[in-house]
Amino acid sequence: ALVLLDDIASRRPISRRTIRARFDAALIRMERGETAEALAAFESIVREHPDHGQARRSLRLLLEARPRDEQLALVRVLFEVLRESDLGDDLLTREAEILVERGDRDGGMRVYERIVELYPYPRGERWDDSLWRLADLAQEGGDHRGAIRYLHEMVEPHSLSIAPGSHTLERMPRAGLRIARIYRDELDDPERAAESFRRMVEEFVRSNLRDDALYELGAMWLDRGRTGEGCSVLREVLAQFEVGHPRRRAAARVTEEWSE
Fold this sequence. Notes:
By secondary structure, the chain is an all-alpha fold. It contains 14 helices and no strands. Helix 10 packs antiparallel against helix 11. It is elongated and about 80 Å long. Mean pLDDT is 93; it is low at 162-166.
């Protein structure tokens, strides 16, 4: 099999098939303990064909074989030549991860911010992941309002969209819900939390998190002694959603409040 793969990989002109053969041959060499040859093949795929489907896997295997400090040096070198390729944001993401793993949260955040700047939505494949991670790191440092700013940046493209439901990434409604939870739980600001819960429900009309947001809004008011407002919101959950865990919880809370 290795002889056949090497033969295919050596053919010209280069095609997607020859690159795949080079990758498969490198995998076999890794399994056989021919690590140097395998890593050289993975690096050649990364450098010469960064937009090929096997380039991302080659990069992962190339990095996994090295200690963390060597990984950091390599991703920085590779980024200088591959920043315009499909691997540009992957390389910066690994750099940010390594910095955070080493305890340099501020350095990691600067790199994540660079990803957001260089690879914006909708082109950037790591744009939303980077903003979400920035919010994580901001909260870990106690900067909850900073986390909200990052999450708002993720939601903004949807808010500016003309067509309802367009430009929606999976994390966008989650970001809207997370903003409300931060106001409620970390900043103890129920009014801003309520606004954010409502905004999430109205903004993301196709999200399956809308019932969670409405339930949490109603429950928040009940927990703060504002029974009328809380029950009113929970009745919205019952009226708008026929099934689901939030609906069952809403029904239980309304029944509990009326029984008292």
